[in-house]
Amino acid sequence: MSENESYKIIGAELSPFSVKVRSYFRFKAIPHQWIPRSLEVQAEYADLFKVPIIPLVVSPEGQGMQDSTPVIERLEEKFPDPAIHPDDTVL
Question: Per the count of CB atoms within 10 A, which of 15, 52, 54, 84 is most buried?
């Protein structure tokens, strides 16, 4: 995947939700760019966010996604291996 085909995660090191999403991308080996939220990326961020929270995940197609758990669940459908949920519901 080239840089244009990778996901972007606009977040902050001090945001546990940003770090959660970045950890998921690393675990799944999903190509991505970590972009610290700053004034330099504010225009792109403002064009894509629904609410002013981080992280903002931008798909290679340019679609913005927010809220860490729904982002992960949505990506889990696209990248099922390795699974993050155990097969045994008790676990």
Answer: 54
